[in-house]
Specification:
The complex is a heterodimer of chains A (about 55) and B (about 525). Helix content of chain A is about 55%, strand content about 5%. The N and C termini of chain A lie far apart (about 50 Å). Chain A has one domain. Chain A is mainly alpha-helical and about 55 residues long. Chain A has one helix at about 25-55, and one strand at about 20. Chain B is an all-alpha fold. Helices cover about 70% and strands about 0% of the residues of chain B. In chain B, helix 4 (about 75-110) runs parallel beside helix 8 (about 165-195) and helix 9 (about 205-240) packs antiparallel against helix 10. The radius of gyration of chain B is 23 Å and the shape is globular. The two termini of chain B are about 25 Å apart. The chains are: A mainly alpha (about 55), B mainly alpha (about 525). Chains A and B meet through strand 1 and helix 1 of A and helix 8, helix 9, helix 10 and strand 1 of B. Strand 1 of chain A pairs antiparallel with strand 1 of chain B, so a sheet runs across the interface.
Chain lengths: ~55, ~525
């Protein structure tokens, strides 16, 4: 909440407190990191599903 | 607005939302925009809310008087089971996901969700799953099959092993809904981790996003277990295995363990997004900063961790060993500690604030009071000795409706009333909103308060007939349910009216509100944060 509000120039209009547009390189880096994490999380979910079939009671 | 228009035009060019972009139904089938997908989730949730609500009104009509009046017990069981499945998987969860889609990118300063195509798939898996859940009702009308799943939403074995084809439909629906939830969760986690605006550390993350982050991890940890359990159920039914079939050496209690390993965290999955949203609303209408931001974050994490280790309190009467009973009783009671921290922080936020009582604040206050009753009655149910009396009674029904209607659905309504002006650019009709609130609160209590007493007096749940001694309170409950059900039409009308037009909303919408999302125009441009915000 209020913690999110300490923008660069404090109290002026939103546009003035913003940095230049996202660069293509920065967006590409973030997308790549997102895809990597998504694969990890997806693999964990699949492993949790499959592991039950391997357990013996 | 000229700035917004130019952003909109730029976004249209970037996303191909110009002349070549599909229009009509194709636009919605192929959209990767977080706002459009969020809107689809919310509209879908609203439709399914009314579908699930209609089912339970039929149930309450049957329960208006003792004896069988309107339907056979088998159909009664089907309505109860599908009502719960629809409300949980097709109404509440999609509504929360709709909020996440709309709000998370706006709140963290991201241009969109990190994985927009997966976002699209996540939504479009829902309609076929909802169709699978409800189709057996229609097939039965044509003499195909014996109706929908009649086991209750818990699908307990051995009843579900022996049930008709409605169980198979439910199993496939749950698989599809699970895939949808996992896709959505992965998207939310990677978006929060990778697309936050520069300077937004995790301890500056809005609490709504924190609530959803914990929810997403809970979903990824528990949905695969549910999917595994219902796959095993499927193989028991059709492929000769005996995981849960006692006659073949299986263990029906194993199904209960697997189901509730998912089922109890599911309660927090439904509630954490709402708990995350509450501080935003309360702080806005109290015109004060959120009290105890860090305490609330740690409480969310504690509830997430405790939530996955308390599952067996849902079947304390199943014959568990005494040490297990004690463990599950004390661990369940321990959840009340972080929850009390949340309640304290919400109330402390209001303390000495310049409060005003617009519709979202009314719903937030209603939520705090009524959800508090769910917490207190939950403590009663966690007590092993007391639970032996209350288990499978109407006390439980009343308890979880105070949790999931007053906590979940009223929480969702709080969010809709709070954010709808931002999304549509129009203010909500306050008079109708307040009318909706008071009708909802009064009729909700009229419906479910008597059920506590019915349960205490020994009325079992999931039975279409009952002893004469329960007649008066059941009649009151049914009257309350119909008022509650029909008063939700006001909500649908208010939403529709707000989308169609009305008083223009300012960018900030509410006087006391704070957060990145309120810097954007109302409604926000199609492509948010074309210009990157920076958090100091």
């Amino acid at each position: 909440m209020s913690q999110t509000l300490h923008r660069a120039d404090g109290e002026n209009s939103a546009a003035e407190s913003r940095a230049p547009n996202f660069s293509h390189e920065e967006l590409a880096r973030r997308r790549k990191a997102s895809q990597r994490l998504a694969w990890v999380l997806g693999t964990v979910a699949l492993a949790l599903y499959l592991i039950g079939f391997l357990l013996k009671r | 607005m000229s700035n917004a228009s130019s952003l909109d035009q730029h976004a249209a060019d970037q996303h191909g939302y110009g002349a070549s972009h599909p229009s009509g139904i194709l636009r919605w089938l192929t959209t990767t925009n977080h706002k459009e997908i969020g809107s689809m989730y919310l509209i879908f949730a609203l439709i399914m809310f009314f579908v699930g609500g209609a089912m339970i009104l039929a149930v309450r009509a049957e329960l208006f008087q003792p004896g069988l009046q309107l339907m056979q017990p088998e159909f009664f069981n089907q309505l109860i089971g599908v009502h719960a499945l629809v409300m949980i998987f097709a109404a509440l969860m999609p509504a929360a996901t709709g909020f996440a889609n709309w709000q998370i990118p706006l709140m963290i300063g991201a241009p969109d969700m990190a994985l927009p195509r997966i976002n699209n798939w996540g939504f479009w898996l829902l309609p076929p799953a909802a169709t699978l859940l409800t189709l057996p009702f229609i097939l039965a009308l044509f003499g195909i099959g014996d109706g929908a799943v009649a086991t209750g939403w818990t699908l307990y074995a051995p009843l579900s092993v022996q049930g008709g084809m409605g169980v198979d439909f439910a199993i496939f629906a749950i698989h599809i809904l699970g895939i949808s939830s996992i896709l959505g969760s992965i998207n939310i986690i990677v978006t929060i981790f990778n697309l936050r605006a520069p300077g937004m550390t995790m301890m500056k993350l809005p609490l709504f996003c924190w609530g959803w982050l914990i929810t997403a991890f809970l979903l990824i940890a528990t949905i695969p277990v549910l999917a595994g359990a219902v796959t095993m159920l499927l193989t028991d039914r059709h492929f000769g295995t005996n995981f849960f079939n006692a006659a073949g050496g299986g263990d029906p209690i194993l199904f209960q363990h697997l189901f509730w390993f998912f089922g109890h965290p599911e309660v927090y999955i439904l509630l954490l997004p709402v708990w995350g949203l509450m501080p935003h609303v309360i702080s806005t209408f109290s015109r004060k900063a959120v009290y105890g931001y860090k305490a609330q974050v740690y409480a969310f994490i504690a509830i997430g961790v405790l939530g996955v280790i308390v599952w067996a309190h849902h079947f304390l009467t199943a014959g568990l060993p005494v040490p297990a009973l004690l463990y599950f009783m004390y661990s369940t009671m321990a959840i009340s500690l972080p929850l009390a921290v949340l309640f304290f922080c919400w109330i402390a936020t209001m303390w000495r604030g310049a409060m005003s009582f617009e519709t979202p604040m009314l719903f937030a206050l209603g939520f705090i009071v009524l959800f508090g009753m769910a917490g207190l009655t939950g403590l009663v149910l966690a007590d092993v000795a007391a639970d032996a009396q209350y288990h499978h009674s109407y006390f439980v029904v009343a308890h979880f409706h105070y949790a999931l209607f007053a906590g979940g659905i009223m929480g969702v309504m709080t969010g809709v009333y709070f954010w709808l002006p931002k999304w549509t650019g129009h203010m909500v009709d306050e008079k109708l909103g307040k009318l909706h609130f008071w009708l909802t609160v009064i009729s909700f209590n009229l419906t479910f308060m008597p059920q506590f007493f019915l349960g205490l007096a020994g009325m079992p749940r999931r039975i279409p007939d009952y002893a004469l001694q329960f007649a008066e309170f059941n009649a009151i409950s049914t009257v309350g349910a119909f008022i509650l059900g029909f008063s939700q039409l006001i909500f649908a009308y208010v939403v529709w009216k707000c989308i169609r037009g009305g008083e223009k909303a300012s960018d900030k919408v509410w006087e006391g509100t704070e957060g990145l999302e309120w810097d954007l125009p109302s409604p926000p441009p199609l492509h948010s944060w074309e210009i990157q915000p920076v958090i100091k």
